[in-house]
Amino acid sequence: MGALSIRNVVKRYGPVQVLKGINIEAPDGEFLILVGPSGCGKSTLLNMIAGLDTITGGEIAIGGRIVNDLSPKDRDIAMVFQSYALYPTMSVRDNICFGLKIRKVPKDKQDEIVARVAKTLQMEQLLERMPSQLSGGQRQRVAMGRALARDPMLFLFDEPLSNLDAKLRVEMRTEIKLLHERLKATIVYVTHDQIEAMTLGDRIAVMKEGEVRQLGTPQEVYDNPADLFVASFIGSPSMNFIRCPVVTDDGAVGVQLQEGTERFVFRAPERVCEGLRLWLGKEAIVGIRPEQITDRSAWSGENPHVVSRSAKIEVVQPTGPDTLALIHLNGTPVTCRVHPEAAPRPGENMSLMFDLSKLVFFDPASEKRIT
Amino acid sequence: MAEPYRTQTAGSHLIGRAVIYTLLVLFALYYLLPLFVMVTTSLKTLDDIRTGNLLALPVQATVDAWAKAWDSACTGVYCGGLKGNFLNSVSFVLPAVIISTLIGAFNGYVLTMWRFKGSDLLFTALLIGCFIPFQVVLLPMAQTLGWLGIANSTAGLIFVHVVYGLAFTTLFFRNFYVTVPAELTKAARIDGASFFTIFWRIILPLSPPIIVVCVIWQFTQIWNDFLFGVVFSSGQRQPITVALNNLVNTTTGVKEYNVDMAAAIIAGLPTLLVYVFAGKYFLRGLTAGAVKG
């Protein structure tokens, strides 16, 4: 029995369809991420799971029970909001207790729960304060405490970290992950930040325009993106996309590339040869991640998939651990990730190692992956 | 080396201040002058008024005129002063203020937190109510009061002022609650709170700043109202504004300016006091958002 089943869920506002048939099954204890750009419908979907928004079609089940017509309070869920939504006129303790009081939990049981939650989140010293006296990170913690107090079947997080500054966000990210490890709770987590999605999720549902484009583990989504959108959305800096003709090279299939005046062919990995053969004589989009174009130092032994090419460096951007270098292939800017010590100066030529084993190809018209 | 750049010298700064304060003091004096004349005149005897100058201080200050205005001034054949009318005003102003404020808060809550199809249209329609002149509603209101059987009664005056005030109170609360994050209501719903519980336990406790604004506004409007009072009440039930008019306009024989002035101040005192004690909250409430941080 899954903790959450979303079956063919549709949401319409008048003639506008904002969710176009969503199907997601989340097993007990899973950390499921809904990620996508603004307007992709991820928050709408979360609100529908919570019961704050009505479902136009399909059904949602929590713990095996269909909840379409249940009000939020009867769905056995708790939610953490982006703005924290702490009750401003109540102390931290009363914020945590509010839901328990409404549900008529006995007073001594309430105290016990508050003590447990405060201990879990290490905020015993904050209990008597008002929300206005707390920092952003502390408010976030109280908001999570309020959710924990309920001990629900399902936790819903609506972009909980996007109001925090960068440093605190990383800290809280770790804390949420730890909390999940400890509680083994089922969590649905909405974010537009792909790093949060990658680092937190057991599985990620990448959404765009009311559809789930891909549902998979972070590594699957990263290595085997289903389409051009997923490939470009996940990963920072983003994957490089180069439009190029599909050609044969000594019987193997590959793509024709040009750097400056030099032309060469990159052979496609075995697994896509068959599929790519159908594109001979036409153009495809090849995708290569920046870390698959590096300097020589990253490669020791022989690797048949790694080829070396010289290219003119246009721009250099140091990030600390790596330096991003910009080159041009087929007239398209391409980002490479090189070791800072190997980084050349702009305008120089550099010998770069291309790892072709992870090349991915896309149909330029449908933007689907070619397999 | 360039000259050090200076925007303003200490001297020119001082002159600017002096000009500003001089102007402010002059205007303050100009606006306070009528009050000064009223207070001094009300403390003078009739002889003092006849012989003295308008701006002169009373030769011998006395509160006789005040006592007369309150207790024994005559309007026509009735010689009971303004005290009854003052209590009349209190007896319908307080309920009208409280009821219209509560309904306004509730309307604002529904119009912002529980939007429904046509809620914006309804709000716009309510807003138009703010611009309808008193005179326009007189006849329909008289008819309605007749149908409801509360014509010429305290309940009728309360009803008139509540209905007329709703547009304003709803506007105040609606605009205040717009700044309250909608997530607050959502969180409360997930916590299991009902429609009314959210209003009483979450939204209303947030509202003191706007309640102060609303109460001051409504109190001033209703206390100072003359037209509804003169049309929808009569005889001993009239509010103090109407009674003051009658007192000043129907004197026979010598015109007792000192009594008139004292009566006018008595009629205006409650609104004045409200501003003195709650004025700073009024300004704060008008400019404050609901939730800080």
Features of this protein?
heterodimer; A: 371 residues; alpha+beta; six-stranded mixed beta sheet; six-stranded antiparallel beta sheet; 22 strands; elongated; B: 293 residues; mainly alpha; 13 helices; 0% strand; flat
How would you characterize this protein structure?
The complex is a heterodimer of chains A (371) and B (293). Chain A contains nine helices and 22 strands. Chain A is an alpha+beta fold. Chain A has a six-stranded mixed sheet with strand order 6-7-8-3-9-10, sandwiched between helices. Chain A has a six-stranded antiparallel sheet with strand order 13-12-11-14-21-22. In chain A, strand 21 and strand 22 form a beta hairpin. In chain A, helix 2 packs across helix 3, helix 2 packs parallel to helix 4 and helix 3 packs across helix 4. The radius of gyration of chain A is 25 Å and the shape is elongated. The two termini of chain A are 33 Å apart. Chain B is an all-alpha fold and 293 residues long. Chain B contains 13 helices and no strands. In chain B, helix 4 crosses helix 10, helix 5 crosses helix 7 and helix 10 packs antiparallel against helix 13. The radius of gyration of chain B is 25 Å and the shape is flat. At the A-B interface, strand 6 and helix 2 of A face helix 8 and helix 9 of B.
Helices and strands in order:
The complex is a heterodimer of chains A (371) and B (293).
Chain A: E1 4-13, E2 16-26, E3 31-35, H1 42-50, E4 57-62, E5 65-66, E6 77-80, H2 92-102, H3 107-120, H4 136-150, E7 154-158, H5 166-183, E8 186-191, H6 194-200, E9 203-208, E10 211-216, H7 218-223, H8 228-233, E11 240-249, E12 252-259, E13 262-267, H9 270-277, E14 283-288, E15 293-294, E16 306-312, E17 315-318, E18 323-329, E19 332-338, E20 349-355, E21 360-362, E22 369-370
Parallel strand pairs in A: 3-8, 3-9, 6-7, 7-8
Antiparallel strand pairs in A: 1-2, 1-4, 4-5, 9-10, 11-12, 11-14, 12-13, 14-21, 15-20, 16-20, 17-18, 18-19, 21-22
Helix pairs in contact in A: 2-3, 2-4, 3-4
Chain B: H1 10-42, H2 46-51, H3 64-71, H4 83-113, H5 119-128, H6 134-148, H7 154-177, H8 182-190, H9 195-203, H10 208-224, H11 227-232, H12 240-249, H13 257-287
